[in-house]
Amino acid sequence: MDVLPLLRAMQRLFASGMNREKVRVLLGGWVDEEDDFPDTLAQLGRNMGLELSIIGRPSEAKKLDLYRAADILYPSPTIHRKLSASRFWKQVPPACR
Questions:
Q1: Tens-of-pLDDT digits for all 97 residues of the chain?
Q2: Predicted structure pTM score
Q3: Where along the chain do its domains lie?
Q4: How far apart (Å, rounded) are the C-alpha atoms in residues 96 and 69?
């Protein structure tokens, strides 16, 4: 998971005056039960004043709900394991493509 560059970018935006209350970051993906990285990310988000939610092991239906609700979407290449790229993009609203 290469999320640290995103968090650094968010820090720079906040430092330049972006209102933290208008930003929410949702991260979804596979998480092993013994993995402490999600807790570390959550703590980093709290330290920055960033509203950060981590959705571990989302179902296919939950993934689609998250994609449809997104203002900005970055799908990891691993998303295509079970859902072909063409099928995936057909289900994402045009505004999010």
A1: 478 888 888 889 999 999 999 889 988 888 888 888 888 889 989 999 999 999 999 998 998 888 888 887 666 655 444 545 555 556 555 544 4
A2: 0.69
A3: 1-57, 60-97
A4: 9
